[in-house]
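Batch manifest line 270
LIGAND: S-adenosylmethionine
JOB: complex structure
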Amino acid sequence: MIRLAVRVRRADAEAVLAELLELAPNGVEESEDGEVVEYAVYGAPGELPELPDVRAAAGPALVEIATREIPDDWYDGWKRFHRPVDVGGRLWVRPPWEAARADRLDVAIDPGQAFGTGAHHTTRLCLELLLDLPATGPFADVGCGSGVLGIAAAKLGWAPVVGLDHEAAAVEAARANAAANGVQLEVRRWDARRDPLPAAETIAANLLRPLLRAVAERLAPPLPRHLVASGLLREEAGEVAAAFAARGLRERARREAGEWAALRLEAPRY
Ligand SMILES: C[S@@+](CC[C@H](N)C(=O)[O-])C[C@H]1O[C@@H](n2cnc3c(N)ncnc32)[C@H](O)[C@@H]1O
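JOB STATUS: finished
ARTIFACT:
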């Protein structure tokens, strides 16, 4: 097993992370050392992102890229980075090897090769904003990754719930996670840049800025009642809110964590 670490300047680290997550959608290990932040991914040779792509993702923030072989029981070490997340005192999003809590709605997520353990700021912000909404009617999780948002939505009461992603690995992971959580989730492949948006009363879209803009541009009536948009750097939130406002969805709430921001948008009749 190989550990590929990219060390970058702290000032630009969150922007680099956004790029790296495109290359390593099931997440990266993060550690800090003074003014340097290190992001690491694990995989067999051939499974890891290509070095030129990693270099391009880091851009001028790059300090160093290092690879080293690690023992094959790496997965047990990797598991330490997937910790349960308590969202709003209502949802307990946990990896399958951690215990459920009787006083929380339980969402057990094995990310497999897909993004979405619940621990990433962008996912958690989405879940927090969803907790503020009435959990009724059809729900679409666009860019579903592991299915974490759609599964949480089904547990909260939305139905029917659809999960959409362009990655086959995400579709597979979301289906398996839905079954493991005992919820109904229709999961299929879908490309945010090409395919029509699903008709849903509530849409959760944890996608990065360019894809959120693509979604905004293709929004057409009937508008969703609520749309939660995440995967934005703080400084991108205003621009994306404006793109949705131009299509008739106005900003009702914004949450921030680290360098990330998420928006709750609403159709005007509500
Ligand atoms: C940041 S992850 C979000 C995963 C999960 N919904 C969460 O909140 O943790 C973004 C997801 O969007 C998917 N994605 C990226 N580009 C896409 C596209 N053009 N069409 C559909 N899905 C896409 C990725 O495969 C990834 O699963």
